[in-house]
Amino acid sequence: MDSKCLMLRLLLSFYIDSASTVPDLLSIFHEQEMTETVHETNGHGYLATFVGKNGRFVILRVHSHGLVTIDLQCYEEDNISQLDNLLNALETKLKALLNGNITRIKRLPALIRGAKVDRYWPTADGRLIEYDIDGVVYEEDSAYQNIKILHSQQFGNILVLNGDVNLAESDLAYTQAIMGSGKEDYAGKEVLILGGGDGGILAEVVKQKPKMITMVEISFIVIDGCKMHMRKTCGDILDNLKGDCYQILVEDCVPVLKKYVKEGRMFDYIINDLTAVPISTEPEEDSTWEFLRLILDLSIKVLHPSGKYFTQGNSVNLSEALTLYEEQLGKLSCPVDFSKEVVCVPSYLELWVFYTIWKK
């Protein structure tokens, strides 16, 4: 059963005396037949919880520095008009008690907890986004990750890997950016795609009639899910692992790259769609940085001297992480130059950085 949390926030222009404010609010809760429990705050304002017979639960917090918060929790089938009336009554009473000394009042939309379909997903820079997701169309676990495809009314189906929004059917801008934003001619070229299990990059590059595309994706489960539920992105390209000008290798790309280095293979374009730049150098992300450095170094070794390497970076707001990545580019076995482009990817709801890298 879903529950909802409605929130009211008031920021005041002065320090507040809870002893003179709270008593007048209590009558409103008592009218709702809610039982009060006051909690010790060691002199830091006032904190009380109120429980109603119908399962409603309210947290009232009066901070002495001038902030009042009211959190109201209820079940989905609760009477919304009654809840609105309760918050309206509290807001009206507070306005009267505080004599207009309120800097800001903010009532937040209800947060839905325990829903069958999770609509809340974080951006790369730590903001919580509520999507208009109304269904899970696919979910499987591979040996490497949890794979979900969710349906959004606005963005179409969205591929989510380990809780990270990867790509939606609306996100052609992502695919175009990681291919060079329409500035490259893939006709007759040798192309290597690392990752890309949603098939979007492969489908777009094939249209330009390259000599051969080799795509290396570690998870057949991602491919299988996307060919069924992301067809606005991949079309029918994932229906077969081989075509006239492409092959899909369902393998770990690291040994494949090492094999290509040993064989002296060269590619005109390498598109790395494996993972975003880590947001920090915390211990749990050390392995990701090491993986990125390894992929970069191996890729540059199989990149034609006049070729280009494309990859995503991360959110434009994560400037420190992007700087760390750019520092890695100066530590490769072969010297490189790079440029970057900032693109709005619809379902990300944030600006995203893409890199173009080439040998000096």
Automatic annotation (TrEMBL):
Residues 119-359 form the PABS domain. Pathway: Amine and polyamine biosynthesis; spermine biosynthesis; spermine from spermidine: step 1/1. Its EC number is 2.5.1.22. Residues 1-21 form the signal peptide. InterPro entries: PABS (IPR030374), PABS_CS (IPR030373), SAM-dependent_MTases_sf (IPR029063), Spermidine_synt_N (IPR035246), Spermidine_synt_N_sf (IPR037163), Spermine_synthase_animal (IPR015576), SpmSyn_N (IPR040900). It catalyses: S-adenosyl 3-(methylsulfanyl)propylamine + spermidine = spermine + S-methyl-5'-thioadenosine + H(+). The active site is at D273. Keywords: Acetylation, Phosphoprotein, Polyamine biosynthesis, Signal, Transferase. Pfam families: Spermine_synt_N (PF17284), Spermine_synth (PF01564), SpmSyn_N (PF17950). GO terms for biological process: spermine biosynthetic process. GO terms for molecular function: spermine synthase activity. Homodimer. Dimerization is mediated through the N-terminal domain and seems to be required for activity as deletion of the N-terminal domain causes complete loss of activity. Belongs to the spermidine/spermine synthase family. This is Spermine synthase. It comes from Anabas testudineus (Climbing perch).
